[in-house]
From TrEMBL:
EC number(s) per entry: 2.7.13.3
Organism of this sequence: Sphingomonas ginsenosidivorax
Official protein name in the record: histidine kinase
Alphabetical list of PROSITE patterns matching this protein: HIS_KIN
Histidine kinase domain span: 272-485
A Pfam family that the UniProt record links to this protein: PAS_8
Length: 493
């Protein structure tokens, strides 16, 4: 701030009066003093050769520095001695005393002149600073309110007026409690400070209803500034409405992208899904044909017909279960967090992945050696991550003589599990490894390169981490999830 004032202020310097101007002013002052003394002698017969020199010396130094005062003093003394030779005051001691007084008056007058000019320059600086600060306050892109200790708004800048333009009235004189929907009981500043503290700790905003528009969501800062011994408070307001709206829109777009990713993952399993559904439907068709033949024979055993119908319905329900599982996997569009058994998520994801495993004639091994407890996740999104990693593993081993994909769960820390998917494929190329999780980075011939990017985003939303473990002999991807052990589940329940 000091550098700003140095750049803004004109230094309060006193410029010296030109010597010629000082001489002229001194001469005029001396002539005035001598002329007045002569007039007094002529009219009133008083011999006062030096009296008026006191006034003119002081006046000359106030006007044009000590030089003018001294020039005037010298001329008054010389003129007084020459024009009033017989005056009683024209003696050597008196003349010396007068000269000393004139010198003191000249210096005093010059000092007063410099003080007056310095004061004027400082007053100009203060006016410049005030104008500058008013301009800053008025044009600052952040809304600012100045509130007195009673909670009444004293003034507001242009940004604040624009922010609350829906009120159609000036903010000055308005209650801060009414403006920000604060409680009316108690101290307005106390409620304001409490709301600021809550916002800083939790990120909570103050919502201001706006007729016919989206409510304003504001964050606040508060600072106390004593002015003339009275407490005033500066309230800084930041409009979070555009940011919150953008966050909500981005969250919606991310959900759509994740849903598209799930649909894309199932699209990659198109033939495998068709084969998976073909089995129960074909079996149901065979059972239906058998029932028809049985019903054509009126003497056929009814119990066998009922058993065949039950088997047919079982195959149809099996197909329905597959359809429902696929529909739930694709249709989920909102984050639905809940405590879920780790085994359930892993086993359901492996059931979806086995479609691709069978199509590639590969083998999927699921390692769940113990009870791990529950994780707080959105099951569909974590299944999406697992399915994407399993399908990537299947595509990596489909041209290999050994086609193994392994899905395992292990403890990582006291509060985290690590889920790993490894395969016996060729591994990750060096040129792709550094940008593996970037959108559209892929080593597949027909891949889009969005699966791992979406998976990483999902895991990070669950406060976990997804990475490629290059230290393993097999191609291995791992991600972590927070969990609560089995013994803690019973306590929480």
């Amino acid at each position: 701030m000091n550098r700003l004032w140095e750049a803004l202020d004109d230094r309060p310097s006193v410029h010296p009066v030109p010597f010629g101007s000082a001489i002229r002013v001194g001469c005029l002052a001396a002539c005035a003093a001598l002329a007045t003394s002569l007039t007094i002698r002529t009219v009133f017969h008083y011999e006062w050769p030096f009296i008026f020199g006191f006034l003119t010396t002081l006046a000359a130094s106030l006007r044009a520095s000590w030089r003018a005062g001294i020039v005037g003093a010298v001329l008054v003394v010389v003129g007084g001695v020459l024009l009033f030779p017989d005056a009683p005051l024209v003696t050597e001691p008196i003349v010396m005393a007068v000269i000393g007084c004139y010198l003191i008056l000249a210096v005093t007058g010059d000092t007063l002149r410099q003080s007056r000019l310095t004061e004027h320059a400082l007053a100009q600086q203060i006016r410049q600073r005030e104008t500058y600060l008013q301009a800053i306050f008025a044009t600052l892109p952040a809304a600012m309110l100045i509130v007195n200790d009673s909670g009444i708004i004293v003034t507001a800048n242009q940004c604040a007026e624009q922010l609350f333009k829906h009120r159609h009235e000036p903010l000055a004189g308005c209650s801060i409690s009414a403006l920000l929907n604060l409680p009316n009981n108690g101290s307005a500043i106390g409620h304001l400070a409490k709301q600021v503290a809550i916002g800083q700790m939790t990120g909570q905003t103050v919502c201001i209803p706006v007729s016919g528009a989206h409510p304003l969501e504001l964050t606040m800062q508060l600072a106390e500034v004593p002015i003339s011994g009275k407490p005033f408070h500066i309230v800084y307001l930041r409009d979070e409405t555009p940011q919150r709206t953008a966050d909500a829109r981005r969250a919606g777009l991310e959900a759509q992208v994740q849903q598209l990713g799930r649909a894309t993952a199932l699209g990659q399993l198109g033939s495998a899904i068709a084969h998976e559904l073909n089995q129960p439907l074909a079996s149901a068709a065979l059972y239906a044909g058998a029932v028809r033949m049985m019903l054509a024979d009126p003497d056929h055993d009814k119990a066998e017909v009922d058993a065949t119908v039950v088997d047919m319905l079982g195959q149809l329900f099996r197909a329905k279960t597959i359809f429902q599982r696929l529909r739930n996997f694709v249709a989920a569009d909102e984050l639905d967090m809940e405590w879920v058994d780790v085994r359930r998520i892993v086993l359901e994801a492996s059931q979806l992945g086995r479609m691709a495993i069978r199509q590639a004639s590969a083998h999927l091994t699921v390692v769940l050696d113990e009870e791990f407890g529950e994780v707080f996740v959105d099951p569909v999104q974590i299944q999406q991550v697992l399915l994407n990693l399993i399908v990537n593993g299947v595509e990596a081993v489909q041209d290999r003589p050994v086609r193994e994909v392994t899905l395992s769960v292990a403890r990582w820390t006291d509060r985290q599990l690590v889920i790993s998917v490894s395969d016996t494929g060729y591994g990750i190329a060096d040129e792709v490894r550094n940008r593996l999780f970037e959108p559209f980075a892929t080593s597949k011939r027909h891949g889009l390169g969005v699966g791992l990017s979406i998976s990483k985003s999902i895991v990070e939303h669950h406060q976990g981490e997804l990475w490629y473990d290059h230290e393993q002999p097999e191609t291995t991807f791992r991600f972590t999830l927070g969990y609560r052990p089995t013994d803690a589940v019973g306590v929480a329940a």
